[in-house]
Amino acid sequence: MPTVLVVDDDALLREVVSTYLRRAGLEVLESDDGLHGVGLAKAASPDLVLLDLTLPGLDGLEVFRRMRAHRGDLPIMMLTARGDESDRVLGLELGADDYLAKPFSTRELVLRVQSILRRTEHLRAPSPTSVGEPLVDGDLVIDRRRHEARRADRPLLLTVREFDLLEHLVSRPGTAFSRAELMKAVWGWEYGDESTVTVHVRRLREKVEVDPSAPRRLCTVWGVGYRWDPQEVT
């Protein structure tokens, strides 16, 4: 049974979220304090963390950094009451897998949690027959069985969403996708904030492009979205 750690100082919200997650068949751990939440994440190794950005004391962004420093592939969804888009984008820039702004629908929260857990399920119980051979594009190798990517024989530090986005694009070279199409295919969302895709593309370019400001692989198709242009070994 997947375990979700909820870190939020709002007791009522924590109770409501935990109740709905348990009804969805998930095990739930709770913390009302950032430092305690970091300790729980290290001790319990949850499958997903729901993290409030506006924690007292040790704030959510610092909690995020410490959790990811301990375990780089830990899926984290940020919860925030802030309405300013820059705060949400900052969380995504740091590598958050998702975010929800309060107030939010508990149904949407559960659906997004389930979406992330489906994406990471094969890491807990990999099935050799469910994935194909590694994808090779120039000096880039994507090993879907091991859920790893390497460029110029160096490992790329990718979040779950970044890996899924990269795998989706590289496996379909030359195809232009809109942000809405990528959101549905990679995130499993029928609707949502498309800036999420934009931020993840920006982060991916920093890791796969020689010059992220002039991308040759993950290219922008103006008026459409994004396309992966295959590269040859030089």
Structural notes for this entry:
There is one protein chain. The protein has 234 residues and is of the alpha/beta class. It has 2 domains: 3-124, Rossmann fold; 135-228, Winged helix-like DNA-binding domain superfamily/Winged helix DNA-binding domain (Arc Repressor Mutant, subunit A), CATH 1.10.10. Helices cover 42% and strands 21% of the residues. It is built from 8 helices and 12 strands. It has helices at residues 11-23, 34-44, 60-70, 85-94, 106-124, 160-170, 179-187, 195-208; strands spanning 3-7, 27-31, 48-52, 76-80, 98-101, 135-137, 140-143, 148-151, 154-155, 176-178, 218-221, 225-228. The strands form 3 sheets. It has a 5-stranded parallel sheet with strand order 2-1-3-4-5, sandwiched between helices. Strands 6-7-8-9 form a 4-stranded antiparallel sheet, covered by helices on one side. The protein is globular and about 55 Å long. The model is unreliable at 124-130 (pLDDT under 50).
Topology, element by element:
Layout: E1 3-7, H1 11-23, E2 27-31, H2 34-44, E3 48-52, H3 60-70, E4 76-80, H4 85-94, E5 98-101, H5 106-124, E6 135-137, E7 140-143, E8 148-151, E9 154-155, H6 160-170, E10 176-178, H7 179-187, H8 195-208, E11 218-221, E12 225-228
Parallel strand pairs: 1-2, 1-3, 3-4, 4-5
Antiparallel strand pairs: 6-7, 7-8, 8-9, 10-12, 11-12
